[in-house]
Amino acid sequence: MTALALVPNAQVPKSEVRPVVQHTLERDLNGIVHLLTCGSVDDGKSTLIGRLLWDASDLYEDQRENVRKSGRKAADSDLPDYSMLLDGLVAEREQGITIDIAWKYFDTETRRFVIIDSPGHEQYTRNMASGASHADVAILLVDARAGVKRQTKRHAAILDLVGVKRVVLAVNKMDLAGYSEDVFRKIEADFRTLCWKFSFWDAVAIPLSAVYGENVARKATTMPWYQGPYLLEHLEKAPSHGTAFEGPFRLPVQTVLRDGVDFRGLAGTISSGSIKVGDEITDVLSGKKAKVERIATMSGDLPSAQAGQAIALQLDHDIDVSRGAVLAAPDSKPVAAQTIEGRFVWLSETAFDPRAGYLLRTVTDLIPVSNIEIKALLDLETMSSHPATHCGVNDIAIAKISLGRPAAIDLFGDISETGTLMLVDAITGASIAGGVATSVTAKSEQHGDGHFILTREMLANGLCRDLSLSSADREEFMRRANEAAILLRAAGVAVAIEPPPMIDDGMDPGL
Amino acid sequence: MNASPSHLDLLEAESIHIFREAAAQFRKPVLMYSIGKDSTVLLHLARKAFWPQKPPFPLLHVDTTWKFKEMIAFRDKTVKDFGLDLIVHINEDGIKRGINPVDHAPSIHTDVLKTQALKQALDKYGFDAAFGGARRDEEASRAKERVFSFRAAGHRWDPRKQRPEMWRLLNGRLGTGESVRVFPLSNWTEKDVWRYIVREKLDVVPLYFAAERPTIVRNGQILMVDDNRLKPKAGEEIKMRKIRFRTLGCYPLTAAIDSDADTIESVVLETLNAQTSERQGRLIDHDQAGAMEKKKQEGYF
Ligand SMILES: Nc1nc2c(ncn2[C@@H]2O[C@H](COP(=O)(O)OP(=O)(O)O)[C@@H](O)[C@H]2O)c(=O)[nH]1
């Protein structure tokens, strides 16, 4: 399944337990991997992470001492109760925050790991989805005696929905299954069948025992029949966060930076691909093209830059691009979308209301929504959809959204970051639903048939009569236009806003 | 090309992204500058995010009037060197009432001269967003903190008003009366902060380096006598001692450690290989159980 599964035995370190991490000044870690663990209660999630910390991380001595002194033991063994290392997080669980994710950080010899802890019961779809949206690798935990369960399938479906590409099935408590190859192979086969339904790039099953540390931070001595990587080995070799170097270039523009008349830098973080001086880029919203003249940072100009880097691009000529634009490679660009279809995890306690005002947030844009149509709800266990017109908390809704003006959006399956969406309540500002774009269309479908168009002229002569053409006033112009659209929509009028005048002062266009 | 970024490269880029998002989404942001190492890194990242412009917001220092003299000197030099705008706010009313950390419980001092003072300053200038240097790894109660942390009217932290954050999307659209604390260093650890200071060759307050300083020992903690407002009690004696600080705050509330580490390299190595976590040096944390949680509800950070 993966090249990692072919690592020969001889390359596996022989040491039983890793040395305590020694820090030197020079040590920069080889990237960051965000880990999400999902499993049912008692499958051994806390013990597994605790054991990983114990064997391979830079825990403080006082933290180790606390665990030893407590006298608590793991399962029926004589070993310390490693799950205590996660107690801090568990005890904090009942703060009453609606959607809770706890973050924990640890370093091994070569890597920074971030544990994303989010409760994963059935009622917590939204919790798990929001945690999983940050994960580079997800560990699906099962008890070797129970194997793959309904819950495991649900979890895999949520991971796939939010774009997790690397999944490890940790088959835990192998000690209670006699370290039996047959038991493991059967679970592994079920897991493969399950994975066929999803678009994971890398899925691997590892037999382990969290309590005894077998295949956790070292190769197991009890399962000679298993030739694959142990858990930590696999995690240390997984690609780091923010390394989507391969795809087409995308730079969502956050703000425009200036220095006198000579410098106008389009600033943002590269979502995908790479760029070098001299490359041509395009902005789909204006249709204009230009060449990259400088890639500027405070530490000096760069000849090239890649996904994950925060930069400012100076172009060879001014194309009047502003916040919300997505600069792209001309041969593969996002759509200037007016209608999108997407899958949304409903995060809010407030159910969908066809008369409410919504805004849609992309990485750097905020767009008034002129219409939302809920088409279906997705059943996570069967992955089938059922027609629906309403949805509420924890639902996965398939929705069609018409935008008040075009926005640069990619299909999530092609370029994930520029295909992510957040539905926002226009009045309270609350985050209502997180989603991914599954289909994008440039043409507005309903324009003309009953849509009221708020033209710029109409606004300039009335509501915005007191405003000048200064950039601060243009921003206020847009804000009023958006607010007027929200009110009209709340009153049941289908409305669209005439595209705004170019704003180039880096302010959020939707505000 | 395609060299893998190190973890510090990734953290730096993420923080810059957060700064740029917040500056674009909020009307009137401010950077809460508390002079210590986290603020030093925070300010450096803010400068990077908007270079070649200056950061498009002022710094706010809430001065309790009990900071180490060297902190104030460092603050003023930093602001001058980088040409930044600084607002210093003191809770004059609290000072008039004679609140101080020597005679009053640390929690009262902190509440009046820090928490209340911060709220006064934010209200006075109408800031709708305040950047802070808080990190999720500092404290279990911070482990769930958002990058955009919302405050209801009156600066109250309401758990139900906290918004889920997904992917790289940051939603800063404010409801009526709301404001935001923005934490660009959310995903940094104490070790990262020090490593980054070395990597970027940043200046920090000299109090982080070991030197002979006048000290007393009170309740088993080493305190520096920065001026004559901290008077030795019976049985206490001012002694010169080679000490340094792991965190900086109000001098009567900040415990020192014995150390010979007097260069940035030796301090960082000592910190990286330390066997206990950082907050031990901060006396207010031991003041009452669940103190952090409470301070958060009250708007301490
Ligand atoms: N025998 C055995 N018991 C385990 C193993 N991993 C976890 N356990 C036990 O299973 C129980 C639940 O573990 P815990 O880590 O608290 O599960 P969580 O609810 O998923 O976090 C505890 O009694 C653990 O000691 C293992 O590999 N072998």
Outline the structure in words.
The complex is a heterodimer of chains A (511) and B (301). With 511 residues, chain A is of the alpha+beta class. In chain A, 19% of the residues lie in helices and 30% in strands. Chain A contains 9 helices and 24 strands. Mean pLDDT of chain A is 85; it is low at 1-20, 90-97 and 501-511. Chain B has 8 helices and 10 strands. Chain B has helices spanning 7-25, 37-50, 69-82, 92-96, 106-125, 190-199, 264-272, 291-298, and strands spanning 29-32, 59-62, 86-89, 129-131, 148-151, 179-182, 211-218, 221-224, 239-244, 257-258. In chain B, helix 1 (7-25) crosses helix 2, helix 2 (37-50) crosses helix 6 (190-199) and helix 6 (190-199) packs antiparallel against helix 7. Chain B is globular and about 55 Å long. Chain B starts with 6 loop residues before the first helix and ends with a helix. The model of chain B is unreliable at 279-291 (pLDDT under 50). The interface between A and B is large, with 93 and 65 residues. The complex binds guanosine-5'-diphosphate. Guanosine-5'-diphosphate binds at residues 39, 41-47, 74-75, 83, 172-173, 175-176, 209-211 of chain A.
Summarize the model shown:
With 511 residues, chain A is of the alpha+beta class. Chain A has helices at 45-56, 61-70, 87-91, 125-132, 150-162, 181-196, 231-237, 456-461, 471-490, and strands at 32-38, 102-107, 112-117, 137-143, 166-172, 202-207, 250-252, 255-259, 263-269, 274-276, 280-283, 288-296, 304-306, 310-315, 326-328, 335-346, 358-361, 366-379, 384-387, 396-409, 420-425, 431-441, 452-454, 495-497.
Comma- or semicolon-separated keywords:
heterodimer; A: 511 residues; alpha+beta; seven-stranded antiparallel β-sheet; six-stranded mixed β-sheet; 9 helices; 19% helix; 30% strand; globular; disordered N terminus; B: 301 residues; alpha/beta; four-stranded antiparallel β-sheet; 8 helices; 10 strands; 33% helix; binds guanosine-5'-diphosphate
